[in-house]
Amino acid sequence: MNVPSNLKYTKSDEWFDPSTGNLGITDYAQSQLSDIVFVELLVEVGEEISAGKPIASVESVKASAEIYAAAGGKVAAVNSALVDKPDTLNSDPFGEGWMIKLEGGAEGDVMDAAAYTAYCDGRAH
Amino acid sequence: MTNPKIVEPTVFELSSPGRIGVTFPTPDVPRADFPTDLLREDLPLPELAEVDVVRHYMHLSKFNYSVDSGFYPLGSCTMKYNPKIDEDTCRLPGFLYTHPLQPIETVQGNLALMYQMQEWLKEISGFAGVTLQPAAGAHGEFTGVLMMRAYHKARGDHKRTKMIVPDSAHGTNPASAGMLGMSIVVIPSDARGNVDLEKLKAACDDTVVGMMLTNPNTLGMFDEHVEEIVKIVHDCGGLMYGDGANLNALLGIVRPGDLGFDVMHFNLHKTFAVPHGGGGPGSGPVGVSQRLLDFLPEPLVGILEDGDDEEQAPLYGFVKPPQSIGRMKAFHGHFGGGLVRAYTYIAMHGPDGLKDIAQYAVLNANYLLARLRSTYHVPFDRICMHEFVAEGQFEGSDVRALDIAKRLMDYDFHPPTNYFPLIVHEALMIEPTETENKDTLDAFADALIKIAEEAKSQPELLHEAPHNTPFGRMDEVKAARELVLCCWLPEDYNENA
Fold first, then answer.
1. Three-class DSSP labels, B174-213
2. Looking at the domain assignment, is residue A123 inside a domain?
């Protein structure tokens, strides 16, 4: 499982990059969901959001999931390319699979990579 | 992968010009021509003889797997065998050839059956009133939540906008409340599969409409604190909704009304043996406690004029509850398909028979659990009710629940529900129902144990399963992404319009 050390993580398996302001879902999340077939982005550019707000709805062949903002701030960009290519979330969750970009992002309830890795290991069963 | 020998052509492919199924006699009345502007020039219908049509559909029907062809342990769906006597009763001409707009004096038999059905469902569930209108389970939920909202509004209590659901809930519960604009508060389950009481207490305040609880829940667990849960919700002024999807486990043993629930839908198509699985029709009557009685949808079936014990039957008709939320359906529910079949089933079993249903359903599920728990990890492992949830994964193996489900088809079993509930990884949700004998249960357990061995020795066999079916592994991503929603697009269809 890939857990980049420079990112912050939520218990609901989203990541936040403090240096770029990007938000997305983790490798663990995409592997649990399996093949993702549908993405709906629930926020628009310019919107002020708070940490914990639902930013997207994602469906896989197994399940559907709400994705929550790992940080709050002003939405600077949304990755609408995901709508046509939802499988990007499976192939590159930390790169091309970014979901939204925040300006002046204030972290919500997040943990570092080591804590998130331990948290995922604890859920293996 | 498909086996080309087995694929059945469409009726259009089978068509050959000039083949005729039915020849009409020479008319014995003067022929009248349609106005030409109503005639089309071309109508490309397939041309087939009757025998071609019968064989075509007979071939197609053999691709189907139904509860009449084998074991169907689809968790949460209660795919019990449906007795064939129900098919006779719902086709009795007196039921079959009536119309919902007939004068009530001409349909007293139908109304008597509906009245009795309301009474029986009240007795079975411990509720004060029942509507038979809702068309299926989720429609029943919507009806129930509408009544909960109407109750609070009628008391001038306008602050209540939150609906509490456990994380093991059927997805329809939050969807029903969400359709009414309510916000959803999800309560996690504790280590024993019960609602986490502390989290529930923290969520309860004067903005709560109520809580929607399935008991037994989707893990097949009877919530050990159900009475306390009801009390916590009532104490903050909320109402308690029961999802009756799993009522089969409780018949004749526990009545939700006695536990303090205020409203519950029945799934007649699950609990009372109305055939389902092909997309309907279902039937979702709703029972309510005394305080919601006045809000029931109109019309209910009532007695307009009392009869006497000797000769005069009562006059049945329609009545309107004083603060009714209105109609939930154009007419009176799924009468023949749902109510007559379920009535027959209840009448045939009687009180003791209904209790047997619950006891055998629970016994069968626990027998399967006992045979499988050493092979498949069961995360919430205690005495289960009518179903249980195992994990379809093994340490150090890349075999997943979907592979196991597909491989079961090679052993001629319908797979269990998979990937639900969401709180179990790689969930396999197994509900055998009461109608299966020990031989069938053993054969199913043997197959699952053999598949677990195959998962270790030949994982590819599972990844590529099923092998023995007319069609092999479907491409689920393609099916979800590349939708074909109609047979052809109109000529003037503009994709960008």
1. HHHHHHCCCEEEEECECCCCCECHHHHHHHCCCCEEEEEE
2. no
The answer to whether B476 contacts A61, with C-beta atoms less than 8 Å apart, is yes
Number of H helices, E strands in chain B: 16, 12
Regarding whether B158 and B122 lie in a shared domain, the answer is yes
Q: Say if strands A100-107 and A71-78 run parallel, antiparallel, or are unpaired.
A: antiparallel
Examine residue A3 and state whether it is found in any structural domain, yes or no.
Answer: no
Establish if B496 belongs to a structural domain.
no
Q: Decide if B454 contacts B462 (C-beta within 8 A).
A: yes
B425–A61 C-beta distance less than 8 A? no
Average pLDDT over residues B188-208: 96
- CB nearest A63 (choices: B391, B419, B481): B419
Q: Do B480 and A37 touch (CB under 8 A)?
A: yes
| Interface residue ranges in chain A relative to chain B, Cβ cutoff 8 Å | 32, 34-35, 37-38, 59, 61-63, 86-87, 125
- Domain for residue B78, yes or no? no
* Among the listed residues B67, B65, B64, B140, the one whose alpha carbon sits nearest the alpha carbon of residue B433: B67
Q: Does B377 touch chain A (CB under 8 A)?
A: yes
Task: Note the ipTM here.
Answer: 0.79
Q: Does B474 touch chain A (CB under 8 A)?
A: no
Residue range B412-459, pLDDT digits in tens: 999 999 999 988 989 999 999 999 999 999 999 999 999 999 999 999
pLDDT at residue B497 in the model:
59
pTM for the whole thing? 0.89
Contact A59 B476 (CB under 8 A): no
Residues of chain B found within 8 Å of residue A68, distances taken between Cβ atoms:
none
Inter-chain CB proximity B476 and A38 less than 8 Å: no
CATH number at residue A100: 2.40.50.100
- In total, the C-beta contacts within 8 angstroms joining chain A to chain B are 23
Of A32, A61, A63, nearest to B480 by CB-CB distance is A61
- Confidence class of residue B1 from pLDDT cuts 50, 70 and 90? very low
- pLDDT tens for A61-108 read 888 889 999 999 999 999 999 999 999 999 999 999 999 999 977 888
The answer to whether B481 contacts A37, with C-beta atoms less than 8 Å apart, is yes
Secondary structure (DSSP) of B344-381: HHHHHHHHHHHHHHHHHHHHHHHHHHHHHTTTS--SS-
Render B94-106 in DSSP notation, one character per residue.
Answer: HHHT--TTS-GGG
